[in-house]
Amino acid sequence: MPLDLPTLAGVDRQTLREQSLHKLRQAIFAGELAPGRRLIETELSEALSVSRGTLREALRHLVQEGLVVADERGRLLVRALSRAEVHDIFAVRAALEALAAETLCAVPDRSGIVRELRDAVDKLRSTDLILSSLVEVDLAFHLKLCELTGNETLVRSWQHICGLTRATIVRSGPELAIRNMDWQRHSPIVDAIEAGDAGKARQVVMEHMRQTADRIAESLDG
């Protein structure tokens, strides 16, 4: 007699969804699914060897992440950002993360904060990460910067634009994305926080975001 365990139902389907999501992300970050490309369910489900239902679940997640958008006819496309949108996204991120850095500088004992941030930076040193994994490590550092403030509104605001941030990384292309996520570009932020220099911390964060936005915008056509 088969076991009646509803809690264990759907494990295989969920695994397939996660695998499909991972592979789609990889294809987007690698440029195989380029910005602006229409995502056709029949083609993708066949390529992934999954059902269209499983594929739709993965695509819905990509929409939530900001990597995929629907056009006016409801067709799904890989998100393509304009230069202006890139600058807008990083201007908001700069404001949020500069506030986070300034807040952390005001903490009397920052040793634990600095240790956690340096651990996050160290993960960016790995040469074994594929691009999609490196993106997650990079985003984890910036999220940690906000989380350590204890300001939940700040964290939620950062998370709200996280999907758009992913889209900017895709738009920049693999080579530039890797350059932008170099650990040496992140260490000065931690150095300023360790020194408790709020002005310097703000300056470093703002410059980090400005330079990243400029690099991505310059890489775009038109």
UniProtKB/TrEMBL annotation:
- Classification via PANTHER family: TRANSCRIPTIONAL REGULATOR, GNTR FAMILY, UXU OPERON TRANSCRIPTIONAL REGULATOR
* Taxonomic lineage of the native organism: Bacteria, Bacillati, Actinomycetota, Actinomycetes, Pseudonocardiales
Which CDD domains does the record cross-reference, listed alphabetically? WHTH_GntR (cd07377)
Name the InterPro entries on file: GntR_C (IPR011711), TF_FadR/GntR_C (IPR008920), Tscrpt_reg_HTH_GntR (IPR000524), WH-like_DNA-bd_sf (IPR036388), WH_DNA-bd_sf (IPR036390)
Q: Which organism is it from?
A: Saccharomonospora cyanea NA-134
Q: Which domain of life is it from?
A: Bacteria
Tell me yes or no: is Transcription among this UniProt entry's keywords.
yes
- Pfam families on file: FCD (PF07729), GntR (PF00392)
The question of whether DNA-binding is a record keyword is answered with: yes
Q: Which GO terms describe its molecular function?
A: DNA binding; DNA-binding transcription factor activity
Q: Which UniProt keywords apply?
A: DNA-binding, Transcription, Transcription regulation
Protein known as:
Transcriptional regulator
